[in-house]
Each structure stands twice: as structure tokens, then as C-alpha cells.
Amino acid sequence: MATTADFKNGLVINYNDDLYTIVEFQHVKPGKGGAFVRTKLKNIKTGKVIPNTFNAGVKIDIQRVERRAYQFLYKDGKDYHFMNAENFEQTFIDENLINAPQFLKEGSTAEIVYHADTETPLLCELPANVELKITYTEPGERGNTATNTFKDAILETEATVKVPLFINTDEVIRVDTRSGEYLERVKS
Questions:
Q1: CATH number given to 130-185
Q2: In principle, which of 2, 39, 73, 139 could form an S-S bond with 25, CB 3.0–4.6 Å?
Q3: In this structure, are residues 143 and 182 in contact, taking their beta carbons and an 8 Å threshold?
Q4: The domain at 2-62 falls in which architecture?
Q5: What is the pLDDT of residues 136-177, one digit of tens each?
Q6: Nearest-5° angle of CA 160, CA 165, CA 169?
Q7: pTM, whole model, 2 decimals?
Q8: Domain boundaries, the chain
Q9: How far apart are alpha carbons 43 and 113 in whole angstroms?
Q10: Is 71 exposed, middle or buried (0-12, 13-18, 19+ CB in 10 A)?
């Protein structure tokens, strides 16, 4: 068992029979009364962030998690099949555990976070941004660039994102997987 002195960002703890990761923490020692630790905890399964205060020295249950690199193979219904990059073992992950399944294309890499004690997958995270080819978008009109205007573009993964008017079909763009927004055009 550990105490609140062992807190650090990214640490995974068991709190209220659920797994939370510490997003932010601050030790507070007021002039009167005992010291305490103010934290922001993110639920690993739901992604919800909650504020919480622990008294200093309280025992906490630290959980071990492992991040493993996997390559996406194919989708079968709601299951996504991945292959371990080191030992070539295949596994499948439910769509609900993936942070941005609409941006997964065959051959792309992702990190699957496992609970080390039970070997159960907790979540699957794509890289912060991915490069995808545009399969269809309306042609931009010349001279219509005075304002910051966007149009819909369909990507090779069949996801739709908003792009600036100067982007055309068959161009490769970089997309933020956390927000689903266009970042930039990739130079070829």
C-alpha cells in the first residue's frame, strides 16, 4: 500500500472500486488543521474527470497498468482486431474501448492499455494525430477564401472532418484524434 506522498501525474489508483488515473494533484498545508492533497482523477473507462480531496498520509491502492504497441488489422462488427508488434499475437478490442475508432485504418498503430494483474484491456489510444487521405470533398471555389470557411471532407476511413476550402480530393491531411479536427495538409 502506498500513501498520498507517492502521488504523481499518470499514476493509476483503485478508488471506489474503479480505476482512476491522477491528472493533477496539489499538496496543501494550511495554517490550521491537517495537510491534504487536492486531486483531479480521470475514470479510465468513462473518461470523466472528478475533483477529490485526500487527507495527507491516507493509504491508496496503486494499480499496475501496461501500455503495449499494437497494429490494427481489421474490423469485424463491433470488434477491432489488433496484432501485437513484438510477439505477433492477435487480440480483439471492443469499439467502446477505443478513443477514436473512426480514424483507424488498416496497418496503423495504437497503444492498448492493460490492467497488469488481470490482463484485461482497459482502453485503446490512437496517436495524438494521424495522416489520412481524402477520398471525396467538394471543389473549393476560387476567391472564396476571405473568411475562415470550412467544408466537409470524407477520409479513407469513411470519417467526415471539416477542412479549409483550399483542400482537394486525394490530398493527405493530418487530423487530431482527440478532437477530430483538421490540423494541416501533409506535404508530399
A1: 2.40.50.140
A2: 39
A3: no
A4: Roll (2.30)
A5: 998 876 665 566 788 899 999 999 999 988 888 999 999 999
A6: 60
A7: 0.77
A8: 2-62, 65-125, 130-185
A9: 14
A10: middle
